[in-house]
Design a protein that fits this description.
Blueprint: H1 4-10, H2 28-35, H3 43-53, E1 61-65, H4 71-80, E2 85-90, E3 102-106, H5 112-116, E4 124-129, H6 139-160, E5 161-172, H7 177-187, E6 188-194, E7 205-213, H8 220-223
Parallel strand pairs: 1-2, 1-4, 2-3, 4-5
Antiparallel strand pairs: 5-7, 6-7
Helix pairs in contact: 6-7
The structure holds S-adenosylmethionine.
S-adenosylmethionine (SAM) binds next to helix 4 and strand 2.
Length: 227
């Protein structure tokens, strides 16, 4: 069972008609998610990304960083099918029902190896990061915290994403956004910056997408066995 605060986060309560306050977070996508049994409206962001770039394929291994309350897990599980595999990690528990080819770990991304153990041995075809920090309302603090999560996700991508694989990374646009986008561009053959229509207009969030990770360069001297 979800706690009340988790439910409110996923589906903010609709105010009764005639209430003096309007619920500013209730919108078309929130209602659609509720109707389609997804725990969060963010599922439509990944759906838009998938429809545009076709990153996730049947049979893929997908790593979902910041996966709670679980709508990206549910959606990616249908895309990869039962021959694929999804692993997720989040500080918050995931309480939604998930098929058996999805595994979820509760813990901090900064300790991913101890939290996920064996799950990090084989490389992934796709790494998703929809992580968001607790916001303070101060745009400099929030974007710096978002960047720290993105850098941690990118570090995981460098070591655990296959060559040819893809990376989707949510970031709050701030001062260092361009520098981070450039570092993604260097690691992948193609990179895109995309704001799905389902993102709230007022939100600073945007997605950086890396497509077709480059092969790791091997130094010719090391390859021939000479130091
Ligand atoms: C917008 S929600 C993700 C929603 C998810 N994509 C879905 O569709 O259900 C962002 C998540 O990032 C998680 N998060 C933030 N910092 C984290 C960290 N250091 N380690 C793990 N998860 C983190 C939060 O707990 C939160 O659940």
């Amino acid at each position: 069972m979800k706690t009340t605060s988790e439910q409110q986060q996923a589906f903010p309560m609709k105010k009764k008609q005639g209430s003096s306050q309007n619920n500013k977070w209730e919108d078309h996508y929130t209602r659609k998610a509720r109707k389609e049994n997804f725990p969060a409206r963010s599922v439509y962001k990944l759906q838009e990304i998938q429809e545009k770039y076709r990153l996730i394929q049947k049979g893929d291994r997908v790593l979902d960083l910041g996966c709670s309350p679980g709508s990206w897990l549910q959606y990616s599980a249908t895309l990869v099918g039962t021959n694929g595999r999804i692993a997720g990690i989040d500080q918050k528990k995931v309480t939604v029902q998930l098929p058996s080819h999805v595994t979820v770990h509760t813990g901090d991304i900064f300790s991913i190896h101890s939290v996920m153990g064996q799950e990090m041995i084989h490389p992934y075809d796709v790494v998703l990061s929809d992580m968001a920090p607790d916001t303070t309302g101060n745009k400099f603090v929030d974007s710096a915290r978002s960047l720290a999560l993105c850098e941690a996700a990118f570090d995981i991508v460098r070591h655990h994403l296959k060559s040819g694989g893809s990376f989707v990374c949510k970031i709050f646009q701030g001062e260092d956004f361009k520098q981070f986008a450039d570092s993604i561009q260097k690691e992948f053959h193609k990179s895109k910056i995309y704001k799905p229509k389902s993102c709230r207009k007022a939100s600073k969030e945007i997605y950086i997408i890396g497509i077709d990770k480059k092969q790791e360069e091997i130094c010719p001297d090391t390859a021939s066995g000479h130091p």
